[in-house]
Amino acid sequence: MTTLIALAVTCLASPAAVELPETSLAGPFATPAAPGFDLAPAAIEDPPPEELGKWKGTVSLGATYSDGNSDRKSATALADATLRREKDRYTFNFLWNYAKEDGVTTDRRTIGTAKYDYFLTKKTYLLANASGESDLNALLDLRLIVGAGAGYQFLEDEKWKLAGEAGLAYVDENYKDNDADAEYLAARLAYKAECKVNESLSAGQNGQIYPSLEDKEDVNALVDTHAKLTLTEKMFAQFGWLFTWDNTPAAGTERVDNLLLLTLGWSF
Which residues have C-beta within 8 Å of that of residue 118, sequence separation ≥ 6? Predict the structure, then answer.
């Protein structure tokens, strides 16, 4: 939450923030505003025509290598893709992180997500989501999540994208230590905030939490904070911080994981 507040302050303090556009767009993700209040500007609410009907996304890579006194290799791959149409939207995300030291694999983590949004109005939409995650150090073989819900998009203009979602999800966790395995129905709460600070710099944060509706101890959450610096028309450098919380981890592992990433990427 502190990170999200800092992001908002940075964007509002940027020179672009004082230049109010003549029109702005309202778009998808969030909880409905109270009756009688519209938190988005009363202007054009559709995405720009050039944003509709074509895939947009990024691919970025990072790696390290050392040999001699230390023998360590690591690699990171990130990818995302979005297809936005007038009535619906497809979103896919992928993360892979790997490290090997002195011939022993010390880190291997994979996360893949997919989401489909169907717009009932220009701001409100229904959604279906699915994700899979494995984590060597957390002794997690597979955490499978499948869910559905609704979202409300507060803003979708050239500077801001702000949205929130709520729904239900089925969570199935399988660990190397079978005693930690769990299967339950959970609530899903999520938000997404993206800000274009200036022509070269953008930043954002996505968060989601899954509290079990069957056992209050079973809670897991993920927060992805990132900043992207545009280098050329297609090339960029990106810093990412992935924070994850598992309230009931496998024996001998920690509840909290932090993963910092620095990658170089291309957009399409």
Answer: 87, 88, 125, 126, 127
